[in-house]
Amino acid sequence: MSWPRRHHWQAEGLRLRRQPLAWMAFSALFLVLLASAIAVGLDARAWRAAAAQDAAVFTAQRAQAAQRLQPPGPANAIATYQLGRGELGGTRMPVRAGLALGVQRLDVLPARLKASLDSRHVDARDQGPLRNPLLTESGLPGLPAMVALLVPLVALLLCAGWLQEEREQGRLGLLRVQSTHGMAPLLIAALGWRLLGLWALTAAATLPALALDPGASLPVAMQWLGALAAFCAPWVLLGGLLSCLPGSGATAMLAALGLWLALTFAVPAGLLLLAEQQAPTPSRLQSIVAIRAAQHDSEDREQALAQAWYAAHPEIAAQLPAVWPASFAVRALDQDLALEPLSVERAESRIAQAELLSRWSWLSPGLALVLIGEVLAGTDVHSHVRYLAQVEAFEQRWRDFLLPAVMARQGLSAAQLAALPRPGPVAAP
Questions:
Q1: CA-CA distances (angstroms) from residue 98 to 10, 38, 133, 358?
Q2: What is the DSSP string of 66-103?
Q3: Which of 30-44, 157-171, 253-267, 280-294 bottoms out in mean pLDDT, i.e. has the lowest?
Q4: Is residue 402 a contact partner of residue 83, using CB atoms and an 8 Å limit?
Q5: What average pLDDT does this structure show over 106-115?
Q6: Rounded to an integer, what distance in angstroms lies between the CA atom of residue 117 and that of residue 67?
Q7: Would you say 130 and 357 are in contact if contact means Cβ atoms under 8 Å apart?
Q8: What percent of the chain has pLDDT over 90?
Q9: Residue 376: closest CA among 103, 145, 38, 99
Q10: In the chain, count of helices (H) and strands (E)?
C-alpha cells in the first residue's frame, strides 16, 4: 500500500527527529553560533556605548586643552599646534543598524581616524587590497563568516549521503515500493525538513547578536533571516543532488567536502585575485616611495612653502623665516597635496574591487552572506570610502580653523577654543 504524499513529510520529519547524528550536529552548530553571536553582540554594544560618549569626551578634552593654553605668543602657538595634532580631532566611522553582523571589520579597517595638522596619509595605516572577508586579519571570524564556514558542513553532512545510506541499509527498495510517485516526493520532503531545521536553528542562534545590539532594528533582522534562508537553500540542494549520484555514502561525503572547500575558500580566493588584477591597488612599496619623496621634497622647500602660504593669506602677518611648528604645518599641507593622487587611486581601486566581488559573489554563497552582513553593518568598502571622504572634509575645516593661529605665532584664545570644529554625529546612509 502506497503512502499519500502528505504522509511523506510526516514520515521524513519523524525520521529526522529520531536520527542521533542530526541532533549532535544541530546541537554543536547551535552552541558555536550562539557563542559567536553573543560575542559580536557585546562588541557592537560596546562600540555604540563608546560612540554615545564621544560628545562628553570631546567636551572634557577641550576643557583640558583650555587649561594648557597660554597668553598669545610663540609658546601658545606651540600649544595650539599640539592641540591640532591631538585627540580632539578624533572621528568615528558611522555604522548601520546591523552592526553586529560586521563589527569585526572595525578591528581591521581604520575606523577611528583623526583630523590633524600633521599628514594622515603619512601616518595612517594603508587599507591595501581587499582580503578574503571570510577570514579577518586578526581575531576570530565574524558571525556571518562563522555561519558561512559551519552551516554548509552540517547541511552536507545531513543531506549528501541520504539516498546512499538508504541503499546501503537495504531500505531503498522498500521506499520505492511504498511511494507510487517515485523517490522525488520523498527526497523533497527529506530536504525540506533539513532546510527548515537548519534555517530555524541558525536564525535562533544568530538573532541574539542583534538583540544585544541596542541599535539593531526589525527590518535588519528580517533582512538577515532572508539572507540566511537564501544561504542555506543552495547547500541543502547541493547535498541532495550529491545524494542522487551513484556510488557509496563515503564517496558522496568526500565530494561534499571538496565542494565545501571549493565554494568557501577557492572561489573567494579566485575572485579576489581577479579583482586585484582588474583593479590593482598601489603597492605598499609604491606608497612608501611616494611618501618618502613627498617628505624630502617638502623639507627641501620648507621656507618657500611657508612664504607661499603667507602670500595666499595676506590677513596673517608673515613670520619669516618660518620656524617650528609653522614650518612643519606647511610641510604637512604639501605632503597631503602630493599624496592625494595616490589616495584617490587607492580608493577607486578598492571600490572597483568591491563591485567586482559583489557582482560575482553568487558563485560562493558564503562570500555573498558575509558581504550582505557587512552592508547591513555599514562596514563594507563603500561605507568606509565614504567615511574617509567625511574625514577629509572635516580635516579641511579643522585646519582652516587652527592653522592661521599657528602661522601667526599667536595661538588660540580660550574664546576661540570654544568654537573649535568637531565632527557631528553622522548616520551611515
A1: 37, 14, 17, 19
A2: HHH--SSSHHHHHHHHHHHHSGGGB------TTGGGTG
A3: 157-171
A4: yes
A5: 90
A6: 20
A7: yes
A8: 61
A9: 99
A10: 18, 0
For the chain, give every domain's residue range.
1-429
Q: How far apart are CA 272 and CA 278, in angstroms?
A: 10
Judged by DSSP in three states, 170 sits in: coil
- Of 317, 307, 325, the C-alpha closest to 74 is 325
Contact 210, 39 (CB under 8 A): no
- 282 CB burial (10 A radius; 0-12, 13-18, 19+): middle
First to last CA, the chain: 61
Say how many C-beta atoms besides its own lie within 10 A of residue 214's C-beta: 12
> CB under 8 Å to 16, separation ≥6 — which residues?
22, 190, 193, 194, 197
Find how far residue 252's CA is from the centre of its chain: 35
Q: Is the dihedral of CA 261, 262, 267, 270 positive or negative?
A: positive
Question: 258 is written with which cell numbers?
Answer: 571538496
The whole-model pTM stands at 0.87
311: its cell numbers: 602670500
What percent of the chain shows pLDDT beyond 70?
A: 85
Q: How far lies 160's CA from each of 80, 147, 259, 419, in Å?
A: 68, 19, 11, 66
Residue 138 has pLDDT above 50, yes or no: no
Task: Give the cell for residue 404.
Answer: 592661521
Which residue would you say has higher pLDDT here, 168 or 360?
360
What are the residues whose beta carbons fall under 8 Å from the beta carbon of 158, sequence distance 6 or more? 21, 22, 25, 194, 198, 239
d(CA 159, CA 152): 10
325 grid coordinates: 611648528
Residue type, 198: L
d(CA 353, CA 84): 35
